[in-house]
Amino acid sequence: MIAVLLGAPGSGKGTQAMRLSSRLGLAHVATGDMLRRAVADGTELGRKAKAIMESGGLVSDDVVLGLIRERTSEKDCASGFLLDGFPRTVGQAEGLDRMLSDRRLAVDVAVNLEVNEDRVVERMLKRAQIEGRADDSPETIRQRIRVYREKTAPLAAWYAGRGLLSNIDGEGSIEAVGERIEESLRDRGVWAPVEAR
Ligand code: B4P
Questions:
Q1: What are the pLDDT digits (tens) for 63-78?
Q2: Which of 37, 170, 180, 182 has a beta carbon 3.0–4.6 Å from 115's, enabling a disulfide?
Q3: Which pTM was predicted?
Q4: How many angstroms is it from 12 CA to the middle of ligand 1?
Q5: φ, ψ (nearest 5 deg) of residue 189
Q6: How far is the CA of 76 from the centre of ligand 1 (A)?
């Protein structure tokens, strides 16, 4: 199974992806985590990505697609993977489709977490106090939300047009949101938890 998790910054993608990937036995592929690791390691990619991430912008489609191509070729992705924070632009979604069709694969479902903007700001400001992430400052959060509206939000319609979109109410407890995702994947016939195999 190949699943995509969509949603605004702070909508709970990373949080739900961790839960879902362990229940479904899928590799968790998070471009934000991969980029933060590159920054921490001081690689060439990390040096380029640092300023872009700290300003709330998006790293270029080519760079992110290259990362995904490499990462999803690893062994743990052979029986499926969950993409968290990717794609973030229509260009990335098109690139992903091309890459998968070359491998005779396709996205099975795109889960879109819907959360009120005031709530995502609240969550990220809270995370800033706990984790101190460089891009969780009030100004950068505003920019990330602007970029989300312009570049990423159109992906919901893109996946809906392909019959792959599951819209999920992302408000409430982490467990409640997780249960809604599970129910929606069950309805689509793509819920195959590890314990049932
Ligand atoms: P990401 O790491 O994807 O950051 P994010 O959008 O904030 O999502 P994240 O997964 O961390 O937060 P979550 O919603 O789970 O990207 C960071 C940056 O990397 C981007 O701005 C961009 O520059 C770059 N980048 C990444 N991917 C890229 C791509 N494909 N193309 C180009 N550039 C890319 O959680 C937020 C907080 O809410 C957490 O503290 C969590 O504990 C809390 N939370 C979650 N669910 C909750 C709930 N139900 N109730 C209360 N709190 C909850």
A1: 999 999 999 999 999 9
A2: 170
A3: 0.95
A4: 7
A5: 75, 25
A6: 23
